[in-house]
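Dock pyridoxal-5'-phosphate; give full complex structure.
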Amino acid sequence: MPAPSLLPTDLRLDLNEARALDAAHPLYAFRDAFVVADPDEIYLDGNSLGRLPHRAREVVAAAVDGAWGERLIRSWGEGWWEAASRIGGRLAPLVGAGEDEVVIADQTSVNLYKLATAALDDRAPRTRIVTDALNFPSDLYVLDGVARRFGGRLEIVPAAADGVHADEAAILAAMDDDVALVSLSEVAFASGYRYDAERLTRAAHEVGARVLWDLSHAVGATPVDLNGWSADLAVGCTYKYLNGGPGAPAFAYVRRDLQDRLTQPIHGWFGQTAPFDFGTAYAPAPGMARFTVGTPPVLSLLAMEPGVELVREAGIDAVRDASVALTTYLVALVDGRLAEHGVRVASPRDADRRGSHVTIDHPDGYRLTKAMIDVGVIPDYREGSGIRLGVAPLYLGFEDLWHAVDRIADLLAREAHRAYDDARATVT
Ligand SMILES: *Cc1c(COP(=O)(O)O)cnc(C)c1O
Protein backbone atom coordinates (compact mmCIF):
# COMPACT_ATOMS: atom_id res chain seq x y z
CA MET A 1 0.00 0.00 0.00
CA PRO A 2 1.43 3.45 -0.85
CA ALA A 3 2.16 5.74 2.11
CA PRO A 4 -0.71 8.14 2.78
CA SER A 5 0.12 11.32 0.90
CA LEU A 6 0.13 13.60 3.94
CA LEU A 7 2.74 11.48 5.74
CA PRO A 8 6.47 11.00 5.14
CA THR A 9 7.55 7.35 4.91
CA ASP A 10 10.05 7.63 7.78
CA LEU A 11 8.34 9.05 10.84
CA ARG A 12 10.51 10.44 13.63
CA LEU A 13 7.53 10.70 16.02
CA ASP A 14 8.79 13.87 17.68
CA LEU A 15 6.80 16.97 18.51
CA ASN A 16 8.39 19.14 15.82
CA GLU A 17 7.40 16.65 13.18
CA ALA A 18 3.81 16.65 14.47
CA ARG A 19 3.71 20.45 14.23
CA ALA A 20 5.13 20.38 10.70
CA LEU A 21 2.50 17.84 9.68
CA ASP A 22 -0.25 20.10 11.07
CA ALA A 23 1.20 23.05 9.14
CA ALA A 24 0.64 21.00 5.95
CA HIS A 25 -2.75 19.58 7.08
CA PRO A 26 -5.21 20.96 4.48
CA LEU A 27 -8.22 20.76 6.83
CA TYR A 28 -6.53 22.24 9.87
CA ALA A 29 -8.62 25.45 9.81
CA PHE A 30 -11.89 23.50 10.19
CA ARG A 31 -11.27 23.15 13.93
CA ASP A 32 -12.24 26.81 14.28
CA ALA A 33 -15.76 25.90 13.20
CA PHE A 34 -16.28 23.94 16.45
CA VAL A 35 -16.80 24.86 20.08
CA VAL A 36 -13.73 23.89 22.10
CA ALA A 37 -14.47 24.49 25.78
CA ASP A 38 -11.04 23.39 27.03
CA PRO A 39 -8.16 23.81 24.58
CA ASP A 40 -5.96 21.52 26.67
CA GLU A 41 -8.38 18.61 26.37
CA ILE A 42 -7.85 16.13 23.52
CA TYR A 43 -11.19 14.81 22.40
CA LEU A 44 -10.89 11.32 20.91
CA ASP A 45 -14.56 10.40 21.01
CA GLY A 46 -15.80 12.09 17.85
CA ASN A 47 -16.73 8.60 16.62
CA SER A 48 -19.33 8.46 19.38
CA LEU A 49 -20.47 12.06 19.85
CA GLY A 50 -18.97 14.69 17.57
CA ARG A 51 -18.15 18.21 18.69
CA LEU A 52 -20.64 21.07 18.60
CA PRO A 53 -20.31 23.29 15.50
CA HIS A 54 -20.61 27.02 16.33
CA ARG A 55 -23.14 27.30 13.56
CA ALA A 56 -25.41 24.72 15.21
CA ARG A 57 -25.81 27.01 18.23
CA GLU A 58 -27.00 29.83 15.96
CA VAL A 59 -29.36 27.52 14.08
CA VAL A 60 -30.89 26.21 17.30
CA ALA A 61 -31.22 29.73 18.77
CA ALA A 62 -33.01 30.91 15.62
CA ALA A 63 -35.24 27.83 15.56
CA VAL A 64 -36.20 28.29 19.20
CA ASP A 65 -36.60 32.05 19.40
CA GLY A 66 -37.80 32.81 15.89
CA ALA A 67 -39.45 29.77 14.35
CA TRP A 68 -40.88 28.24 17.51
CA GLY A 69 -41.16 31.34 19.72
CA GLU A 70 -42.62 33.73 17.17
CA ARG A 71 -43.88 31.88 14.11
CA LEU A 72 -45.28 28.82 15.89
CA ILE A 73 -47.50 26.62 13.67
CA ARG A 74 -46.72 28.75 10.60
CA SER A 75 -43.14 27.44 10.71
CA TRP A 76 -44.33 24.13 9.26
CA GLY A 77 -45.00 26.03 6.05
CA GLU A 78 -41.76 28.00 6.37
CA GLY A 79 -39.26 25.14 6.13
CA TRP A 80 -40.06 22.61 8.82
CA TRP A 81 -42.17 20.31 6.65
CA GLU A 82 -39.48 19.83 4.00
CA ALA A 83 -36.50 19.80 6.40
CA ALA A 84 -36.20 15.99 6.63
CA SER A 85 -35.99 15.49 2.88
CA ARG A 86 -34.02 18.68 2.22
CA ILE A 87 -31.29 17.80 4.75
CA GLY A 88 -31.37 14.19 3.53
CA GLY A 89 -30.59 15.58 0.08
CA ARG A 90 -27.64 17.54 1.49
CA LEU A 91 -26.31 14.39 3.18
CA ALA A 92 -26.85 12.18 0.10
CA PRO A 93 -23.60 12.97 -1.78
CA LEU A 94 -21.58 12.03 1.31
CA VAL A 95 -22.84 8.46 0.88
CA GLY A 96 -22.82 8.36 -2.91
CA ALA A 97 -26.60 8.65 -3.22
CA GLY A 98 -28.96 10.85 -5.21
CA GLU A 99 -30.72 13.71 -3.40
CA ASP A 100 -34.05 11.90 -3.64
CA GLU A 101 -32.67 8.69 -2.13
CA VAL A 102 -32.00 9.83 1.45
CA VAL A 103 -34.33 11.06 4.16
CA ILE A 104 -33.69 11.99 7.79
CA ALA A 105 -35.90 10.16 10.27
CA ASP A 106 -36.07 8.37 13.60
CA GLN A 107 -33.07 6.57 15.07
CA THR A 108 -30.65 4.27 13.34
CA SER A 109 -32.09 1.24 15.14
CA VAL A 110 -35.64 2.18 14.08
CA ASN A 111 -34.63 2.79 10.47
CA LEU A 112 -32.85 -0.56 10.48
CA TYR A 113 -36.05 -2.22 11.66
CA LYS A 114 -38.14 -0.49 9.00
CA LEU A 115 -35.78 -1.26 6.12
CA ALA A 116 -34.94 -4.83 7.20
CA THR A 117 -38.66 -5.58 7.43
CA ALA A 118 -39.24 -4.01 4.03
CA ALA A 119 -36.48 -6.22 2.60
CA LEU A 120 -37.93 -9.42 4.09
CA ASP A 121 -41.38 -8.59 2.80
CA ASP A 122 -39.85 -8.07 -0.61
CA ARG A 123 -37.84 -11.32 -0.58
CA ALA A 124 -40.59 -13.64 0.71
CA PRO A 125 -40.62 -16.59 1.13
CA ARG A 126 -36.96 -16.23 2.09
CA THR A 127 -36.52 -15.57 5.81
CA ARG A 128 -32.80 -15.83 6.61
CA ILE A 129 -30.72 -12.77 7.49
CA VAL A 130 -26.92 -12.86 7.44
CA THR A 131 -24.73 -10.55 9.51
CA ASP A 132 -21.49 -10.95 11.45
CA ALA A 133 -20.17 -10.74 14.99
CA LEU A 134 -18.51 -7.36 14.42
CA ASN A 135 -21.89 -5.71 13.90
CA PHE A 136 -23.23 -3.27 16.49
CA PRO A 137 -25.28 -5.06 19.18
CA SER A 138 -28.37 -2.92 18.52
CA ASP A 139 -28.22 -4.06 14.89
CA LEU A 140 -27.94 -7.69 15.97
CA TYR A 141 -30.96 -7.35 18.26
CA VAL A 142 -33.09 -5.60 15.65
CA LEU A 143 -32.15 -8.04 12.88
CA ASP A 144 -32.82 -11.01 15.16
CA GLY A 145 -36.24 -9.58 16.00
CA VAL A 146 -37.08 -9.07 12.34
CA ALA A 147 -35.94 -12.57 11.32
CA ARG A 148 -38.02 -14.17 14.09
CA ARG A 149 -41.09 -12.15 13.15
CA PHE A 150 -40.88 -13.75 9.71
CA GLY A 151 -40.33 -17.21 11.21
CA GLY A 152 -36.72 -17.16 10.07
CA ARG A 153 -33.37 -16.75 11.75
CA LEU A 154 -30.41 -14.44 12.00
CA GLU A 155 -27.08 -16.02 11.14
CA ILE A 156 -24.19 -14.27 12.89
CA VAL A 157 -20.98 -15.18 11.07
CA PRO A 158 -18.01 -15.21 13.50
CA ALA A 159 -15.27 -12.61 13.10
CA ALA A 160 -11.73 -13.60 12.15
CA ALA A 161 -9.77 -15.28 14.96
CA ASP A 162 -8.05 -12.00 15.90
CA GLY A 163 -11.43 -10.40 16.72
CA VAL A 164 -10.29 -7.36 14.74
CA HIS A 165 -10.94 -8.31 11.13
CA ALA A 166 -14.15 -9.62 9.61
CA ASP A 167 -14.05 -13.04 8.00
CA GLU A 168 -15.36 -11.90 4.63
CA ALA A 169 -14.79 -15.34 3.08
CA ALA A 170 -17.11 -16.84 5.71
CA ILE A 171 -19.71 -14.14 5.06
CA LEU A 172 -19.57 -14.93 1.35
CA ALA A 173 -19.87 -18.65 2.13
CA ALA A 174 -23.01 -17.99 4.21
CA MET A 175 -24.77 -16.45 1.22
CA ASP A 176 -27.05 -18.88 -0.57
CA ASP A 177 -30.47 -18.70 -2.14
CA ASP A 178 -32.26 -18.91 1.23
CA VAL A 179 -30.89 -15.55 2.25
CA ALA A 180 -33.31 -12.64 2.16
CA LEU A 181 -31.01 -9.98 3.54
CA VAL A 182 -27.33 -9.37 4.24
CA SER A 183 -26.80 -6.55 6.74
CA LEU A 184 -23.45 -5.33 8.04
CA SER A 185 -21.89 -2.16 9.42
CA GLU A 186 -19.58 -0.79 6.75
CA VAL A 187 -17.10 0.25 9.45
CA ALA A 188 -17.23 -1.94 12.55
CA PHE A 189 -17.86 -0.03 15.77
CA ALA A 190 -15.28 -1.84 17.91
CA SER A 191 -12.19 -2.54 15.80
CA GLY A 192 -12.89 -0.04 13.02
CA TYR A 193 -12.66 -2.82 10.39
CA ARG A 194 -13.85 -1.54 7.01
CA TYR A 195 -15.53 -4.06 4.70
CA ASP A 196 -15.14 -4.54 1.00
CA ALA A 197 -18.69 -3.31 0.58
CA GLU A 198 -18.78 -3.42 -3.19
CA ARG A 199 -17.73 -7.06 -3.35
CA LEU A 200 -20.12 -8.16 -0.60
CA THR A 201 -23.01 -6.26 -2.17
CA ARG A 202 -22.35 -7.89 -5.53
CA ALA A 203 -22.17 -11.35 -3.97
CA ALA A 204 -25.46 -10.84 -2.10
CA HIS A 205 -27.14 -9.75 -5.33
CA GLU A 206 -25.82 -12.86 -7.08
CA VAL A 207 -27.83 -15.03 -4.68
CA GLY A 208 -30.87 -12.76 -4.93
CA ALA A 209 -30.57 -11.21 -1.46
CA ARG A 210 -31.01 -7.56 -0.52
CA VAL A 211 -28.20 -5.67 1.21
CA LEU A 212 -28.58 -3.17 4.04
CA TRP A 213 -25.49 -1.23 5.14
CA ASP A 214 -25.24 0.54 8.48
CA LEU A 215 -23.00 3.53 7.79
CA SER A 216 -22.93 4.94 11.32
CA HIS A 217 -19.15 4.73 11.69
CA ALA A 218 -18.41 5.59 8.08
CA VAL A 219 -20.52 8.61 7.21
CA GLY A 220 -18.62 11.88 7.45
CA ALA A 221 -15.24 10.15 7.77
CA THR A 222 -14.93 7.86 4.75
CA PRO A 223 -16.44 8.14 1.27
CA VAL A 224 -19.31 5.73 0.73
CA ASP A 225 -20.52 4.87 -2.77
CA LEU A 226 -23.99 3.41 -2.35
CA ASN A 227 -24.96 4.02 -5.98
CA GLY A 228 -21.60 2.74 -7.23
CA TRP A 229 -22.07 -0.49 -5.25
CA SER A 230 -25.74 -0.72 -6.33
CA ALA A 231 -26.55 -1.05 -2.63
CA ASP A 232 -30.24 -1.57 -1.94
CA LEU A 233 -30.64 -0.03 1.49
CA ALA A 234 -28.64 1.85 4.10
CA VAL A 235 -29.06 3.55 7.44
CA GLY A 236 -26.74 5.59 9.60
CA CYS A 237 -26.36 7.96 12.42
CA THR A 238 -25.61 11.68 12.31
CA TYR A 239 -24.17 12.45 15.75
CA LYS A 240 -20.78 10.78 15.21
CA TYR A 241 -18.51 12.13 12.45
CA LEU A 242 -21.32 14.35 11.16
CA ASN A 243 -21.38 16.26 14.45
CA GLY A 244 -25.19 16.44 14.46
CA GLY A 245 -25.65 16.53 18.24
CA PRO A 246 -26.79 14.07 20.92
CA GLY A 247 -29.73 12.01 19.72
CA ALA A 248 -29.76 13.74 16.33
CA PRO A 249 -32.14 11.94 13.97
CA ALA A 250 -30.68 9.26 11.71
CA PHE A 251 -30.89 8.77 7.94
CA ALA A 252 -32.27 6.12 5.65
CA TYR A 253 -31.36 5.37 2.04
CA VAL A 254 -33.40 3.31 -0.41
CA ARG A 255 -32.16 2.91 -3.98
CA ARG A 256 -34.41 4.88 -6.30
CA ASP A 257 -35.83 1.91 -8.26
CA LEU A 258 -36.84 0.16 -5.03
CA GLN A 259 -38.59 3.06 -3.33
CA ASP A 260 -42.04 2.54 -4.74
CA ARG A 261 -41.78 -1.24 -4.61
CA LEU A 262 -40.94 -1.54 -0.90
CA THR A 263 -43.20 -0.70 2.02
CA GLN A 264 -42.14 -0.38 5.60
CA PRO A 265 -44.04 -1.72 8.60
CA ILE A 266 -44.88 1.46 10.51
CA HIS A 267 -47.69 3.12 8.59
CA GLY A 268 -47.67 6.67 9.91
CA TRP A 269 -49.16 9.86 8.59
CA PHE A 270 -45.81 11.35 7.47
CA GLY A 271 -45.42 8.35 5.16
CA GLN A 272 -48.92 8.74 3.76
CA THR A 273 -49.60 10.14 0.27
CA ALA A 274 -51.81 13.00 1.42
CA PRO A 275 -51.49 13.40 5.20
CA PHE A 276 -53.71 16.46 5.32
CA ASP A 277 -56.63 14.72 3.68
CA PHE A 278 -56.95 12.85 7.00
CA GLY A 279 -58.33 9.85 5.17
CA THR A 280 -58.91 6.55 6.97
CA ALA A 281 -56.87 4.31 4.66
CA TYR A 282 -53.07 4.26 4.38
CA ALA A 283 -51.62 4.83 0.92
CA PRO A 284 -47.82 5.03 1.04
CA ALA A 285 -46.37 8.25 -0.35
CA PRO A 286 -44.11 7.96 -3.39
CA GLY A 287 -40.36 8.21 -2.90
CA MET A 288 -38.51 8.38 0.39
CA ALA A 289 -41.39 9.96 2.30
CA ARG A 290 -42.95 6.49 2.77
CA PHE A 291 -39.99 5.52 4.92
CA THR A 292 -40.84 8.20 7.47
CA VAL A 293 -43.47 7.75 10.17
CA GLY A 294 -44.40 10.75 12.31
CA THR A 295 -43.43 14.27 13.30
CA PRO A 296 -39.64 14.68 13.28
CA PRO A 297 -37.77 16.19 16.28
CA VAL A 298 -37.51 19.54 14.51
CA LEU A 299 -34.95 21.20 16.78
CA SER A 300 -32.59 18.22 16.60
CA LEU A 301 -33.18 17.90 12.89
CA LEU A 302 -32.24 21.52 12.19
CA ALA A 303 -29.31 21.36 14.61
CA MET A 304 -27.64 18.58 12.62
CA GLU A 305 -27.53 20.42 9.29
CA PRO A 306 -24.43 22.55 10.02
CA GLY A 307 -22.41 19.40 10.72
CA VAL A 308 -23.40 17.96 7.34
CA GLU A 309 -22.50 21.24 5.63
CA LEU A 310 -19.04 21.30 7.24
CA VAL A 311 -18.18 17.86 5.84
CA ARG A 312 -19.47 18.92 2.42
CA GLU A 313 -17.33 22.05 2.57
CA ALA A 314 -14.21 20.09 3.51
CA GLY A 315 -14.94 17.49 0.83
CA ILE A 316 -15.34 13.86 1.84
CA ASP A 317 -12.25 12.74 -0.13
CA ALA A 318 -10.08 15.31 1.65
CA VAL A 319 -11.60 14.19 4.95
CA ARG A 320 -10.68 10.58 4.14
CA ASP A 321 -7.11 11.53 3.16
CA ALA A 322 -6.68 13.35 6.46
CA SER A 323 -8.27 10.47 8.36
CA VAL A 324 -5.94 7.89 6.79
CA ALA A 325 -2.86 10.02 7.51
CA LEU A 326 -3.95 10.71 11.10
CA THR A 327 -4.88 7.12 11.97
CA THR A 328 -1.68 5.81 10.31
CA TYR A 329 0.30 8.29 12.39
CA LEU A 330 -1.58 7.24 15.53
CA VAL A 331 -0.84 3.55 14.89
CA ALA A 332 2.86 4.45 14.51
CA LEU A 333 2.76 6.39 17.79
CA VAL A 334 1.12 3.49 19.63
CA ASP A 335 3.75 1.08 18.27
CA GLY A 336 6.58 3.49 19.00
CA ARG A 337 5.59 4.75 22.45
CA LEU A 338 3.00 2.45 24.04
CA ALA A 339 3.83 -1.10 22.89
CA GLU A 340 6.63 -1.29 25.46
CA HIS A 341 3.97 -0.73 28.16
CA GLY A 342 1.80 -3.62 27.00
CA VAL A 343 -0.53 -1.72 24.64
CA ARG A 344 -1.35 -3.29 21.30
CA VAL A 345 -3.24 -2.02 18.29
CA ALA A 346 -6.62 -3.77 18.00
CA SER A 347 -7.61 -2.22 14.65
CA PRO A 348 -6.61 -3.21 11.11
CA ARG A 349 -3.11 -2.04 10.23
CA ASP A 350 -4.00 -1.72 6.56
CA ALA A 351 -5.44 1.80 6.30
CA ASP A 352 -7.63 0.70 3.42
CA ARG A 353 -9.42 -1.72 5.73
CA ARG A 354 -9.75 0.76 8.58
CA GLY A 355 -12.29 3.46 9.40
CA SER A 356 -11.41 6.57 11.37
CA HIS A 357 -10.77 5.21 14.83
CA VAL A 358 -7.92 3.20 16.28
CA THR A 359 -8.68 0.74 19.07
CA ILE A 360 -5.94 -0.07 21.52
CA ASP A 361 -5.88 -2.92 23.95
CA HIS A 362 -4.26 -3.10 27.37
CA PRO A 363 -4.81 -5.70 30.12
CA ASP A 364 -6.00 -2.90 32.42
CA GLY A 365 -7.94 -1.08 29.72
CA TYR A 366 -10.85 0.22 31.75
CA ARG A 367 -8.69 1.67 34.51
CA LEU A 368 -6.41 3.18 31.88
CA THR A 369 -9.47 4.81 30.27
CA LYS A 370 -10.36 6.46 33.58
CA ALA A 371 -6.79 7.66 34.08
CA MET A 372 -6.74 9.08 30.54
CA ILE A 373 -9.90 11.09 31.14
CA ASP A 374 -8.31 12.62 34.23
CA VAL A 375 -5.35 13.86 32.20
CA GLY A 376 -7.61 15.37 29.51
CA VAL A 377 -7.52 12.60 26.92
CA ILE A 378 -11.12 11.57 26.21
CA PRO A 379 -11.63 8.15 24.56
CA ASP A 380 -14.29 5.54 25.16
CA TYR A 381 -14.10 1.93 26.19
CA ARG A 382 -15.75 -1.04 24.58
CA GLU A 383 -15.92 -4.21 26.64
CA GLY A 384 -13.93 -7.02 25.08
CA SER A 385 -12.36 -4.80 22.41
CA GLY A 386 -10.44 -2.08 24.15
CA ILE A 387 -10.05 1.67 24.22
CA ARG A 388 -11.32 3.45 21.12
CA LEU A 389 -9.40 6.50 19.97
CA GLY A 390 -11.69 8.32 17.54
CA VAL A 391 -9.92 10.48 14.99
CA ALA A 392 -12.30 13.14 13.69
CA PRO A 393 -10.28 14.80 10.92
CA LEU A 394 -12.16 18.11 11.04
CA TYR A 395 -10.92 19.02 14.49
CA LEU A 396 -7.97 16.78 15.30
CA GLY A 397 -4.39 17.25 14.19
CA PHE A 398 -1.10 15.42 14.48
CA GLU A 399 0.03 17.44 17.49
CA ASP A 400 -3.19 16.51 19.34
CA LEU A 401 -2.45 12.84 18.73
CA TRP A 402 1.17 13.30 19.76
CA HIS A 403 0.16 14.85 23.10
CA ALA A 404 -2.54 12.22 23.67
CA VAL A 405 -0.06 9.37 23.27
CA ASP A 406 2.57 11.24 25.26
CA ARG A 407 0.12 11.57 28.17
CA ILE A 408 -0.85 7.89 27.92
CA ALA A 409 2.84 6.86 27.87
CA ASP A 410 3.43 8.97 30.97
CA LEU A 411 0.45 7.38 32.79
CA LEU A 412 1.69 3.90 31.98
CA ALA A 413 5.29 4.68 32.92
CA ARG A 414 4.06 5.91 36.32
CA GLU A 415 1.52 3.07 36.55
CA ALA A 416 -0.96 5.82 37.45
CA HIS A 417 -3.91 3.76 36.16
CA ARG A 418 -3.45 1.33 39.06
CA ALA A 419 -4.88 3.94 41.43
CA TYR A 420 -8.32 3.63 39.75
CA ASP A 421 -10.94 1.04 40.51
CA ASP A 422 -12.32 -1.22 37.83
CA ALA A 423 -16.06 -0.58 38.42
CA ARG A 424 -17.90 0.26 35.21
CA ALA A 425 -19.82 3.53 34.88
CA THR A 426 -23.27 3.49 33.20
CA VAL A 427 -21.85 4.88 29.95
CA THR A 428 -18.38 3.61 29.11
C1 LIG B 1 -23.95 4.47 16.78
C2 LIG B 1 -24.54 3.35 16.05
C3 LIG B 1 -25.91 3.15 16.05
C4 LIG B 1 -26.81 4.05 16.85
O1 LIG B 1 -28.11 3.61 16.88
P1 LIG B 1 -29.27 4.52 17.50
O2 LIG B 1 -30.47 3.75 17.23
O3 LIG B 1 -29.21 5.83 16.81
O4 LIG B 1 -28.97 4.66 18.95
C5 LIG B 1 -26.42 2.11 15.30
N1 LIG B 1 -25.61 1.30 14.58
C6 LIG B 1 -24.27 1.46 14.58
C7 LIG B 1 -23.41 0.58 13.75
C8 LIG B 1 -23.70 2.49 15.32
O5 LIG B 1 -22.38 2.65 15.32
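Observed: Residues 107-109, 136, 138-139, 185, 189, 214, 216-217, 237, 250 surround pyridoxal-5'-phosphate (CB under 6 Å).
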